[in-house]
Specification:
CATH class: Alpha Beta
Largest sheet: 4 strands, antiparallel
Protein name: GYD domain-containing protein
Organism: Rhodococcus globerulus
Strand content: 25-35%
Distance between the termini: 40 Å
InterPro entries: GYD/TTHA1554
Oligomer: single chain
CATH topology: Alpha-Beta Plaits
Helix content: 40-55%
Structural class: alpha+beta
Pfam families: GYD
Length: 107
């Protein structure tokens, strides 16, 4: 299953909800959401900085990732950026896969 990193930033409404419910309730809600589309959560961490939370998990496919993104955005309490994570073995496969490419301006 593809692995993803979600970088989450709360809106003021989302931060107020987090303040009311607490961190463990939010982690449990995120885990439930990911599991509802056939995925798993590996880790969930709150952070200080430009993002309020980082979640690492696996999903069956990109459609599941899109479903989570759409639902999160539609609620308006958080903005989430999905990053696909690759293993070192997948990078080995990528660098060995042929791909035709011509650099701009090259002949």
């Amino acid at each position: 299953m593809p692995k993803y990193l979600w970088q989450v930033t709360y809106t003021p409404t989302g931060a107020a909800g987090l303040q009311k419910e607490g961190g463990t309730a939010r982690r449990d809600a995120i885990t439930h959401m990911v599991e509802s589309v056939g995925g798993t959560v590996e880790s969930c961490h709150f952070a200080l900085g430009s993002h309020d939370m980082f979640v690492i998990g696996s999903l069956p496919d990109a459609v599941a990732a899109a479903a989570l993104s759409i639902r999160t955005t539609a609620e308006g309490a958080a903005r989430s950026e999905s990053v696909t994570l690759l293993t070192p073995e997948e990078i080995d496969e990528a660098v060995n896969r042929p791909a035709d490419y011509r650099a701009p301006g090259a002949e």
